[in-house]
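Service request form, structural biology core

Requester: graduate student, group of Dr. S.
Request type: structure prediction, single chain
Budget code: on file
Notes: please return the result as structure tokens.

Sequence provided:
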Amino acid sequence: MIGAGGLRAAFRRFANVCANDVRGAWEVVRARRRAFASALAVFVLLTLLAFTQDRAVDEWVLAHRADFPAPGRAAHYLRWWGRGHDTIFFVLLLLLWSALRRDGRWARYARACALAMIVAGIAINVVRVGSGRPRPRANLPDRWRGPTLIYAHQSFPSGHTSASFASAACMVMAAPPLGVAALASAAGVGWSSIYSRAHHLSDVVAGVGAGSLIGAAFGLAARRRAVGRAPPAQHDPRGVA
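Core staff response, request fulfilled:
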């Protein structure tokens, strides 16, 4: 049985590993700052354009949602799926594959995806608590009310969308085949946020941008570490690989 000292030591080791992953993601951003800055500028522009369509999109949803009950039920379940259950599912798949292949790289990818989701969730929740934008279903004037802990006034950006896209973007960089499925799942989460009137279109676009950039940083860092730790290729002394 592991004692309290052993548990503390294990926790410290795990915390150090996670801290190294976060530093690695930050190093990737610094090394590719022009690419990340350009992508950020694109998402800021898309978010500003989405602001001009927020009312029209919400009015369409409000007018037609009663005519299509099946998508409404799907949006309800996708909202639940986007509360971290999607990330847990894909992370478990990566861990299972790591165990089957006896390859620790996939476990590192799983950890990176989980960390990307956590970092995105923390960052976005700080922003939306500070923005104080009412959710569409709150039926309040759309304006920035400042810092608030009222859930109905925490619309911008979408936390579900950013967390889902953070883990999905990380998987695209580290494990592309699984990443495609994760991206499709994240897109469904974003759609459900609009259809359920939990978020405006611009909230979701901003969440996609923030989550994707955070996830890409963690995914690139995990892939770089995996390649750096890969065993060197064995070459035949006669020159034949």
